[in-house]
Amino acid sequence: MKKKGEMKKVIKVKDKVNDGQDDDPWWWLVQEGIKPSFLCISLFALLVRVAVGLHPYSGAGTPPKFGDYEAQRHWMEITLNLPPKDWYRNSSVNDLSYWGLDYPPLTAYQSYVHGVFLKTFDPDSVALFTSRGYESYLGKLLMRWTVLSSDVLIFFPAVLYFVLVYRSMRFGMGQNSDAAWHIAMILLNPCLILIDHGHFQYNCISLGLTIAAIAAALSQKDLVASVLYCLALNHKQMSAYFAPAFFGYLLGKCLRKKNPLLEVTKLGLMVIGTFAVVWWPYLQSKDAVLAVLSRLAPFERGIYEDYVANFWCTSSVLVKWKKLYSTQSLRIFSLAATLITCLPSMVQQILAPSSKGFLYALLNSSFSFYLFSFQVHEKSILLPLLPLTLLALEESRLILWLTHFGMFSMFPLLHRDKLVLAYMALYALFILVYFAPCGPGGRCHGTKTLDNTQKTKRGVDFITSITFHPLVMGFLGLCSLILHVIYLTMHPPNKYPFLFEAVIMLICFSQFVLFTFYFNSKQWMLSKHLTSKDKQKKLI
């Protein structure tokens, strides 16, 4: 009788807790499990992408070279009408000065496949020579569909794979609501949506392959991870931003196994085999390989373009790097700075590989490349933001803060593309999703992250305590708002035509540098909390 009475009390308590929540769509969604949640969020994310695709794109109606949209279309034209040996070679039928291919072969193959799709429905859009600057309604619709299909076929499945693996980890999610919120943070990343579906690119392919490689590595499928990461690297060379993290983590795991040399050899063979398959049309001659490689390293463009929030561009306000040093010297400087700043993170993973440490290493190495490597573009902030979204549950406060500055750093670019309305709408949507009542952002804004930090790292905690002081947050938020308004409503002085871009760059750079120190410190602190049992296993 006593047990029955207790059971009734429990049922009544549950009824009270659930009272009113059955009518909440978010509550219903998260109670249904991961896969139904993923399906619903994916459909919504797809609709958001379609809506952004209705806005203008890079270089719309601006001859003679238009913009990134025309570059992607032109690559389809070239790959469809010329043999592979001529794709990267300057000739009378392939003028490399007009949007010549400057990405690895996998991008060229992707362009060929998409070119076949366009030719099926609109042959004029990929006709050799005559299709330059082609901007018909059907052509634009088909181009937008190629990006959407890339998202659905590669990026979305990779995110599901990662979330399922991440959930199974001991540092992962304990509630369906956390998983649903995490999925939303990744799929509704406003920066990626604006660049791929607004500006027009295919970052979803290389980033999707990278996410799949990360998930494979976390689930102990190291050979599969190597293949997937090599494919990402062969789609966009900027995927090298993650190379130190993959190298450190996989090497560290190999060194802890019974036969390290055999494990390293297996990984090496998978890497060589993947590159050989992708590069096969160009391995017939040394000149063909060099022709492709010369297109992948555009040193002639200078150490930076436009106003990007990295070290070289920001410091050029005081030090005129391009005037003081030759391109060769700047290449050495940037290489040295990048290696020095990413080395600590890589070494930590070689010495103490761990799943969580690997995710932080991805974040740290990508920030090192963004801040110090040669020829960084505003869009490159997508690479550090990827591992940050994967760590959304660990860094629930910082994902909102750094996503804000990531978007802000691209605002001048998106303004030129006439994507201000989409920019504001996606930013508002991201904030609404972030503060969803059942997610970490809505329940307790960043408490988990700061509590864990305070227990172990007084030095690291200093960074968050200063940055998230109400006065500092209010000041930086107000500066961002004012600069947005000024940029939209005022013209800079004639003497300083890029004054507004420079100020935006300085503010964003300060935040990126600050949190690069924070994330590196946090990664190294992970080693100190491994128990003796963990030191035997080390890997989850």
Automatic annotation (TrEMBL):
E.C. number: 2.4.1.-
GO cellular component, one term: endoplasmic reticulum membrane
Compartments, record wording: Endoplasmic reticulum membrane
Record flagged with keyword Membrane: yes
Domain of life: Eukaryota
Keywords attached to this entry: Endoplasmic reticulum, Glycosyltransferase, Membrane, Transferase, Transmembrane, Transmembrane helix
Pfam families for this protein: Alg6_Alg8 (PF03155)
Broad class of where this protein is predominantly found: endoplasmic reticulum
Membrane disposition: Multi-pass membrane protein
InterPro entries according to UniProt: Glyco_trans_ALG6/ALG8
Pathway of action: Protein modification; protein glycosylation
A GO MF term: dolichyl pyrophosphate Man9GlcNAc2 alpha-1,3-glucosyltransferase activity
Major enzyme class: transferase
Transmembrane segments: 145-167, 179-195, 202-218, 267-283, 333-351, 357-377, 420-439, 460-486, 498-519
Family: Belongs to the ALG6/ALG8 glucosyltransferase family.
Protein name listed in UniProt: Alpha-1,3-glucosyltransferase
Biological source species: Gossypium anomalum
